[in-house]
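Class prep. Write one:
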Amino acid sequence: MKSKMSLVAGVVLGTALVCIIAFLRYTLYLTSRNKRESRVRLEKFLEDYKAIRPTRYTYADIKKITDDFNEKLGEGSYGTVYKGRLSSEIYVAVKVLRDSKGKGEEYINEIGTIGRIHHVNVVLLLGFCADGFRRALIYEYLPNDSLERFILPVSSSTGSVSVISWNKLQHIALGTARGIEYLHQGCDQQILHFDIKPQNILLDHNLNPKICDFGLAKLCSKEKSAITMTAARGTIGYIAPEVLSRNFCKVSHKSDIYSFGMLLLEMVGGRINMDAKTNNHCKVNSLEWIYRHLEKGEESKIRIEEEGDATIVRKIAIVGLWCIQWHPVDRPSIKEVTQMLEGDGSHLNLSPNPFMATDKPKLNASPHGEDLDVILEIK
């Protein structure tokens, strides 16, 4: 009896081991196949891409360009950016990506999207590296870093003054809007960025803004204005409500408008003079504060330094508040945003309060004459 039970146990154990080994071999096969497919897909894309301009470099070239990664400019979840130069006069920023997830969609996305764009307010892609699984992107070098460094909150207790004028901030806001307008309306296909934020607005030596980081961008037809997505994308604090919840509203170019509105309000919110004892205001509280003061017409606590600054502040704040309306159909188009920023702002009306509790989503007619039809993104 024991012999028979031992035999059965041996058969069961042997069968289990065979199944485990088969499963592991199949998993290894799938992993290896996915890596091969990813590499073949990338190589095919790059082969087709040769005629579109940016130069392809080897990893050895990248090491030489960056002087063996000598000077780091920044680091993020995507990888690390180093300063380099192509010649004695041409400096560049080299983004070295960490191991890409999936099939390298973000890398292909960035090259395929930004590589064919040439606009004064969009960063220029000069080259790329796809040497095995080592990947990098080479951009024009912009010496003034990003907008983020110029809109940090200032404290009245320190007596510090802003390092950039309101007139220049208005110039940056308008230039960024023109860049987004080009992406939405000036390209062969509409480009939705999905990650508009201060860190992705780079500034050249004259503080001219240039939109960067197109890893999350999507292409869609210009004839339609909404897009289907399988997952939320972007940066918390700048993501439109409809991107966070697919049950809310249709994702469209209006999602970029929302992010841009948060950027505009952060420009204003970063200049609020807060007493050191109350400097624990969160971002949302400061935005609500901006709306309440505009609504009541009370004296602003925004740091004002020159004549005309108050007018600029009011205009940027009102445009930002229109952009972050809860329902996409209530937000202006980027063309309307640009026109508002170009004007003197004297005729701008305050938007409805975007911080009040909202009712059910509005999915129908838009006051701006748009009907957001759902479409599939262009691959």
Q: What stands out?
A: The longest helix spans residues 2-49. The domain at 147-342 is CATH 1.10.510.10 (Transferase(Phosphotransferase); domain 1). The mean pLDDT is 78. DSSP finds nine helices and twelve strands in the chain.
